[in-house]
Structures are given as structure tokens and as C-alpha cells.
Amino acid sequence: MDKDRISGAVDKAKGAVKDAVGSATGDSKMQAEGKMDKAKGTGENAMGGAKDTLRDAADKR
């Protein structure tokens, strides 16, 4: 598993917690930070997936 994918999963989880806590407490700043962390994690996962695809394609040559 690519380190970008692991980092992405951590950021998505952290973001989900911040989003939920911010929503529950009415802290819109924390909720926004959580949404940003989740988006960052999604991007990191996509980057890791692209790297894996390229690596697999190169291995098949």
C-alpha cells in the first residue's frame, strides 16, 4: 500500500471526527476544518491509486 493512500486514510478519518464534533458542538470552524481534511485525504488516496496504476503498468512491460 502506498504511503499516500495511508496518509489519505488518516486524513479522511481525522476529518470525519472533526466534522462530526464541529457539527455536534456548533463549531463551524472545526466542521470546516474537518471537511478540508476529508477532501485532502480523498486527494491523497487518488494520488496513491494513480501511482499504483502506473507502477502496475510499468511492471507488465
Radius of gyration over alpha carbons?
15 Å
Tell me, rounded to a whole number, the average pLDDT: 92
Amino-to-carboxy terminus distance: 21 Å
Structure annotation, total helices:
2
Number of strands: 0
Overall geometric form: rod-shaped
Residue stretches low in confidence (pLDDT < 50, at least 5 long) are none
Biggest sheet, in brief?
A: none
In quaternary terms, these chains amount to single chain
In helices, the fraction of residues equals over 70%
Order of helices and strands: HH
In the residues, how many domains can be counted? 1
Structural class: mainly alpha
Tell me the β content: under 5%
Domain CsbD-like: 4-56
Pfam families: CsbD (PF05532)
Family: Belongs to the UPF0337 (CsbD) family.
Region (Disordered): 1-61
Which characteristics define this entry?
rod-shaped, CsbD, 90% helix, CsbD family protein, mainly alpha, YjbJ_sf, 2 helices, 61 residues
Task: Describe the protein in words.
Residues 1-17, 30-41, 52-61 have a biased composition (Basic and acidic residues). Residues 1-61 are annotated as: Disordered. This is CsbD family protein. Belongs to the UPF0337 (CsbD) family. The protein has 61 residues and is mainly α. The protein has one domain. Helices cover 90% and strands 0% of the residues. The protein has helices at 3-25, 28-59. Helix 1 runs antiparallel to helix 2. It is rod-shaped, with a radius of gyration of 15 Å. The two termini are 21 Å apart. The relative contact order is 0.22.
